[in-house]
Amino acid sequence: MTAEIIDGKAFAAGLRARVGELAAAFTPQAGRAPGLAVVLVGEDPASAVYVRSKGKATREAGMESFEHRLPADTAQDDLIALVDRLNDDAAVDGILVQLPLPKHIDEQAVLTRISPDKDVDGFHPVNAGRLATGLPGFVPCTPLGCLMLLEDRLGDLSGLDAVVVGRSNIVGKPMAALLTKANCTVTIAHSRTRDLPRHLRHADIVVAAVGIPHFVKGEWLKQGAVVIDVGINRTESGLVGDVDFAGAMQVASAVTPVPGGVGPMTIAVLLRNTLVAAHRNAGIPLEKGAI
Ligand code: NDP
After folding, report:
1. Do strands 233-235 and 238-240 pair parallel, antiparallel, or not at all (unpaired)?
2. CB under 6 Å to ligand 1: residues?
3. Would the CA dihedral through 130, 136, 141, 143 be positive or negative?
């Protein structure tokens, strides 16, 4: 059996096009385009690439991109003062502070300063709490993108067994919350999990967010599972995921590739979240299910 490859790049392109249409409709109504501010502190090369591509994607969707590049030795107070200014700026609907921040800055202090209503990354504890309690709020982009790919592939997820490998605040935990909300029976595995293959053997859905190249083996999977590989690992042979792709292709029914799977979804969902924020901030209704 050879699994199908889930084309995250194509799905993300469709989502970005839809965001573009809705942004084009928003702009004349609000008298301004939706705006996303991205803050980069320091010169981490991977972060600089992410920030560049976020800015480009934002402009391509007909939204305003405000890019703030600060030197690596920026004081925490100065960064927080910038966040405060962006919170107060009516042209800014979404604020994203690119992680990781330099070591002398307390990430939590900065992230919790972002207004929860502009927190399009969904990292603020208020939005984490909203997700945990079923209130509307911003959901972190990567897990929301994974859920979209799963629902596109499987339709209703009710009753399916899902294993999320990884419990970070930005991927694993919100992923598990979204799958629970979608009526899956969810297991969260992590570095202390005993006998991971035993858990994976029964999983209809596997989401791998571990940060170890090719960690999840094909022979651990249930026949016909749908496998979402969140991992982005830079190795000598290029970018690879957290799943042994070749092995998984022999057992699963569908697998996301790396690159070209979850990665493109993250930016597309960021644009989607910014569009939603813009409508809320401007008091313009966005039809339920419009995006
Ligand atoms: P973290 O390092 O924050 O979390 C990794 C998780 O994996 C932890 O919960 C850890 O467990 C768990 N883990 C580590 N070793 C094992 C093991 N041997 N068995 C089972 N679980 C283990 O990573 P992130 O969640 O931030 O990212 C995960 C991956 O996803 C990375 O490759 C990252 O680059 C990628 N990523 C991709 C994005 C995209 O847009 N596609 C966006 C964000 C991340 P414990 O909690 O016990 O330490």
Report:
1. antiparallel
2. 142, 165-168, 170-172, 189-193, 196, 209-212, 230-233, 242, 262-263, 266
3. positive
Give yes or no for a contact between 126 and 116, defined as CB atoms under 8 angstroms apart: yes
Q: Say how far apart CA 208 and CA 243 lie, in whole Å.
A: 7
Q: What is the pLDDT of residues 252-285, one digit of tens each?
A: 999 999 999 999 999 999 999 999 999 999 999 9
**Burial letters for 24-63: b for 16+ Cβ neighbours within 10 Å, e otherwise?**
eebbeebeebbbbbbbbbbebeebeebbeebbebbeebbb
Instruction: Give tens-digit pLDDT for 51-110.
Output: 999 999 999 999 999 999 999 999 999 999 999 999 999 999 999 999 999 999 999 999
CA distance 70 to 178: 34
pLDDT band at 289 (very low <50, low <70, confident <90, very high): confident
Active-site residue, from 117, 121, 229, 242 = 121
Asked if pLDDT for residue 2 goes beyond 90, the answer is: yes
Mutate to test the pocket of ligand 1, among 121, 165, 230 (most ligand atoms within 8 A of CB): 230
34 vs 43: CA distance, rounded Å: 27
Query: If you take atom 6 of ligand 1, which residue's CA is the nearest one?
Result: 166
Q: Give the ligand 1 atom nearest the CA of 263.
A: 41
Amino acid at 15: L
Catalytic residue list contains 54:
yes
Report d(CA 87, CA 91) in Å as an integer: 10
Residue spans of alpha helices (H) in 182-261: 196-200, 245-251
Region 189-207: what's the mean pLDDT?
A: 98
Indicate the pTM of the whole model: 0.97
CA–CA distances in Å: residue 234 to residues 166, 170, 214, 218, 247: 18, 19, 12, 21, 20
Please state the rounded mean pLDDT for residues 8-23.
Answer: 98
